[in-house]
């Protein structure tokens, strides 16, 4: 099957899953009820559930899938690390920690305020992990960055959780962000985060030729006229915007940025001219699919972050073993 055919198939799958997101969920509503509600018909309760809950929730899953898929591909390209992921490298945890600090210290309660704090935290976390993980003779090896990211992420998450425990008001405000959930999200979050996510996704496409150059190594990239430091800085800024917006919308979501680039790489190869755009297509499929599983897996809906972790953890283990990090 050609790349174009696979692309069209993935787009069709994404569209179908998105429409399923409008019709599937808790509550005794038929497909016909949901369909009428999409066109502003039916009783007020059905309209509220479908138009102001399921629709924005599904669209938010699409947006976050785009953000995390693109961010994962950029991080793997910038670091030449197949295990790079905003969650594993502590970027999402750093964003969440900054949100907690904003809530506890400054009384922040709005999505816009959380998003600004999350972007600052994501940038600081990415800088810290890369700086610490690149020390030593071997430089920024995949294993060192993963270990540093996991350690930093645990510290950020632990301190953030501790801060919410000593401030009950902040705990009540931010607890829905702690596990990464789409439950209770509405048009307020969509209206705020879609702009930075779309800008970040478009800006990420401008990095495509430079990421292909970086894949050859820093020395060869410089020989091709690529400003390595400048491109890495631009890439980390784009990742910060994408991860900050995604974390402000849902909370810390792990493994999506790891899985999506590897799926795209299997289907389309390592060329970033295909890889990065396909991550923008595959990411929403993973997020919306995970959300649908979260809705129907149990009688009470699961946090989508739990589903992505359940799926992504075995993927990480398989990738680590494939690289020979774990002895046979």
Automatic annotation (TrEMBL):
InterPro entries: ABC_BtuC-like, ABC_transptr_permease_BtuC. Its main location: membrane. The keyword Transport applies. Keywords: Cell membrane, Membrane, Transmembrane, Transmembrane helix, Transport. It comes from the Bacteria. It is found in: Cell membrane. This is Iron chelate uptake ABC transporter family permease subunit. It is a multi-pass membrane protein. Belongs to the binding-protein-dependent transport system permease family. FecCD subfamily. The chain crosses the membrane at residues 58-75, 87-107, 113-133, 145-166, 192-212, 233-254, 274-294, 301-320. It holds the Pfam family FecCD. The lineage of its organism: Bacteria, Bacillati, Actinomycetota, Actinomycetes, Mycobacteriales.
């Amino acid at each position: 099957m050609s790349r174009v055919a696979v692309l069209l198939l993935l787009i069709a799958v994404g569209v179908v899953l998105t429409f399923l997101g409008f019709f599937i969920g808790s509550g005794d509503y038929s497909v016909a009820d949901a369909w009428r509600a999409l066109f502003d018909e039916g009783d007020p309760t059905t309209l509220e559930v479908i138009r102001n809950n399921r629709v924005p929730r599904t669209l938010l899953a699409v947006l976050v899938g785009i953000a995390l898929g693109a961010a994962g591909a950029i991080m793997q390209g910038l670091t030449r690390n197949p295990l790079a992921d905003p969650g594993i490298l502590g970027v999402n945890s750093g964003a969440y920690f900054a949100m907690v600090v904003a809530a506890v210290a400054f009384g922040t309660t709005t999505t816009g305020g959380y998003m600004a704090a999350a972007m600052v935290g994501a940038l600081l976390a990415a800088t810290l992990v890369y700086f610490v993980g690149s020390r030593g003779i071997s430089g920024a090896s995949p294993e060192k960055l993963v270990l540093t990211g996991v350690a930093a992420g645990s510290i950020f998450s632990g301190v953030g959780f501790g801060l919410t425990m000593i401030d009950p008001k902040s705990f009540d405000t931010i607890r829905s962000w702690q596990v990464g959930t789409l439950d209770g999200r509405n048009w307020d979050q969509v209206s705020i985060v879609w702009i930075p996510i779309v800008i970040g996704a478009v800006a990420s496409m401008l990095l495509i030729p430079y990421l292909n150059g970086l894949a050859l190594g820093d020395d060869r990239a410089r020989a091709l006229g690529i400003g390595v430091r400048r491109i890495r800085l631009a890439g980390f800024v784009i990742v910060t915007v994408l991860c900050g917006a995604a974390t402000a919308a849902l909370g810390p979501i792990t493994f999506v940025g790891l899985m999506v680039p590897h799926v795209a790489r299997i289907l389309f190869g390592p060329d970033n001219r295909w890889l990065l755009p396909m991550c923008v297509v595959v990411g929403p499929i993973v997020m919306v699919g995970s959300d649908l599983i979260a809705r129907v897996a149990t009688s009470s809906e699961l946090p989508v972050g739990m589903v992505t972790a359940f799926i992504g953890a075995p993927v990480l283990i398989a990738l680590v073993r494939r690289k020979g990090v774990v002895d046979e």
